[in-house]
Amino acid sequence: MNLSTGNDYSFLFGGQSSATESSGFSLNDYASIKNGSYGKLMKAYYKEQKNGGKSAEEVKQETQTKGVEYSETASLADKFDKSVSKLLNSSDLFELKEVTEKNEDGVENTKSEYDRDAILSAVKDFAKSYNDLMSKATKSTNKNVARRAENLAGQVTNYYKQLKAAGIEINEDGTLKVNEDTIKNADVSALKRAFNGKDSMLGQIASKVDQIGNAAESAAKNLKGYTKSAKYASDSSAIGNLLNNQV
Q1: How far apart are CA 236 and CA 14, in angstroms?
Q2: Higher pLDDT, 38 or 205
Q3: Taking the CB of the first residue and of the last residue of the chain, which one, N or C, has fewer CB atoms within 10 A?
Q4: Which candidate, 153, 131, 138, places its Cα nearest to that of 216?
Q5: pLDDT tens readout for residues 152-180
Q6: Taking the model in full, what pTM does it have?
Q7: At what angle do helices 188-195 and 201-221 cross, to 10 degrees?
Q8: Helices (DSSP H) in the chain: which residue ranges?
Q9: Would strands 176-178 and 168-170 be described as parallel, antiparallel, or unpaired?
Q10: Spatial separation of the C-alpha atoms in residues 191 and 126, rounded to whole Å
């Protein structure tokens, strides 16, 4: 069945006035309602208006783009949690260890010291994962995600002195930079207070990161999906063609 309407689709809204169809309701209308094409047309037409004039393909592409963005943000938040786990949850990292070394004469000497290299590596992982997450979250198209990221950035700025004492500096763009010399020479008990445990500075930061990750996951789940067969009329003149395809 093919209905050629051109740019005049007033028949859909009772615009006909012939003697046989003075009620504004034609046999064609009846057939369209009976076979479901009229309902499909109306749903497609009004959905198009709701989408602000965007075609189904444009909406689908926009949805996919946002979906990728939100999923990546959630993934970066999860990666942050994993990267700081050793700092937060392992007290061994900040404990003295027995280290045995040989001098030039081959005599072994045992002494207690901290594994500064391991601490430095863990702090570097923290800074990198933070920078990676915030570079995406602060620019998020989801207001909730972006707002939480901005709140975290403000909180980290408030930690400026504590971070600096622990070997981390804040660049002008808000990213973190590790000062290796400071970490290698800092009081390890101070590093432990800054990075170890949920009540530490890092623990507070991690809780905010969890909020960002949860917001990103929620945003991704709330995106409306569209099937490959979804169709919309991009303008009023396309309604006739849409009806032809549905009937």
Answers
A1: 17
A2: 205
A3: N
A4: 138
A5: 999 999 999 999 999 999 999 999 999 99
A6: 0.68
A7: 30
A8: 27-34, 37-50, 56-83, 85-89, 116-137, 143-158, 160-165, 180-185, 188-195, 201-221, 239-246
A9: antiparallel
A10: 13
